[in-house]
Amino acid sequence: MKRFKWAALVAAMVSMVGFTSCLNNDDDGTRTTLGYFRAVGNYGAVYFQDMYDFKYQPTTSLMDSPTSELAFLYFTYNQNDITQGATSIDITLLQNPTYLKRLYVGTTLPDEKETVSLVDLSSANGGIWGVNEFLVLSPTYLLKSGTTDENLTEELANHRLEVYYDANENTNTSTLTLNLRYTISGATAPEEASDAEHWADEYTVPYTDAVYVRLSDVISKYQENNSGNDPEKIVVEYEDYNGSGSVPTMDPDKKLSRTISYDWVKVSDDQ
């Protein structure tokens, strides 16, 4: 099966959300690292921060301004350059930053006949970033047959992810629930008395994406209906194919609601 550079790197992250590194064989202090980092600055003066506000400064200036607040980075740095009390370090990027798309939170779920099932939503490759700052989601869906690195951007423009928050569902509960929905331009629901979805036969190439939600977009709404309290966990509900194999469908009878969950990061009063 075709695998894309971005999808392969996301899959390789396993349960890492934030920061991980490994030693090179000839240990001269060089470390190779990948993870999600906050993007700061603009044209010619871009740097990155981890969840502890430690600064990562690319040795080569980035001439493009960040397109979102969160980026996936793959880089090297020298462990010996980190001294006691250091607040920043120079890094050498091994590829250009990949900026994650931000999902803005809607309030009205689309009709179930308008949405398409996902292949998977991995809890291992997502999670809460920082102290409840971002929620990173890593859904897998299918692209059209024949999609390559050369036409990937054009194909991705036809795929859309949206997230929704239902105030009624989030009242008097310790769980904050978000609903993730997925649509494809050109996909059509089966006609009455027919379950044929011939368009789905064209989609065979798995692709793992990474998007994020700014949690401040929803936490105040949740607190309004829950006596000002924080949730104990975040649950993300999504639509899966109710059958064997990976087949995209818009048919409500062929879709199954699934969930993944993440524990809310608790902060004590003395922190």
TrEMBL record:
Residues 1-24 form the signal peptide. The keyword Signal applies. Keywords: Signal. Gene3D superfamilies: 2.60.40.3220, NigD-like N-terminal OB domain (2.40.50.500). This is NigD-like protein. The lineage of its organism: Bacteria, Pseudomonadati, Bacteroidota, Bacteroidia, Bacteroidales.
